[in-house]
Amino acid sequence: MERRGRSNDGQRVAQQRGTGKTVNRSRLKGIFVSVLVLLVLSGCAPKVWYKPHATVSDLDRDESECLKQAQRESGEPAVHQHGGFAKERVITNWDIFNSCMTAKGWSLHDRDALQDLFEQSAEFQQAQSVLPAALQVFEDKKRVICAQPDYAALFAKSPCQYKNITFQQLADGTSITPEERSLLIRYRTEMEALYKGLANELRARGTDKDKQYADYIGSLQDNVTNVYLDVLNGKITWGEFNQRRKELAAKLEVGRKNLYHPTP
Q: Which residues lie closer than 8 Å to 232 by C-beta, 6 or more apart?
């Protein structure tokens, strides 16, 4: 059975019963979807503490409480790190510590086997956002559209990538021509299909946040459609269209950041 305590430098240590050998272990805190908490001991330590639905805070609290129960001061002299003698030292009864942890619902398991099992579980798969991969597919397909030479005249008025919109294009006071109108309708149809594909992928295989972002994408599509209709019907100029494109793209980016990387 593995014994646990603390070394002088504050690191967690593990002792194998009966060997008298103490080995420092660095601690890796990890929370997997609030379902599994592993205290992974590096090096050759094979065991980890496991408790379903626990957090790192739960682990810290329970360890602290169990150490208080398991530790006592000894009046026996002991050699300290500078070679002198200390009159008292703290002795930890690891049987009491382990029994306390067990009573609180924790158990020791083989680290690699437990981690492999969890990574195959539905909870772990659900924790993995598909947004990065889905966005990569989206951008790859969009680059193909952007590279089509048939769209050259359209992109001279409004670039494929909104970030490439120039000051001159924002100031463009001209209205759409019949040729440009035909190209814009075709481009809008292709881009609408891309966004629908992205949203469908997030809903089908994504996390709860991915699904929320898919809904957010959908909520903006009416606004996008209205902007396209306004320029197609000559209600706004190319410059106004480009400005509104930038505003909608920025809104989409802000929504994504607020969802996946909220600021305190």
A: 176, 181, 184, 185
Average pLDDT for 1-15 = 37
Token reading at 200: 């469908």
- Given 87, 104, 126, the domain boundary residue is 126
Q: 210 near 129, Cβ under 8 Å?
A: yes
d(Cα 13, Cα 97) in Å, to the nearest integer? 14
Give the β-pairing of 47-50 and 107-110.
Answer: antiparallel
Tell whether the torsion through CA atoms of 180, 185, 186 and 189 is positive or negative.
positive
Pick from 213, 214, 215, 219: nearest CA to 259: 213
One domain, residues 119 and 133: no
pTM above 0.90, yes or no: no
Distance CA(239)–CA(166), nearest Å, equals 10
- The helix (run of H) or strand (run of E) holding residue 57 is helix 56-70
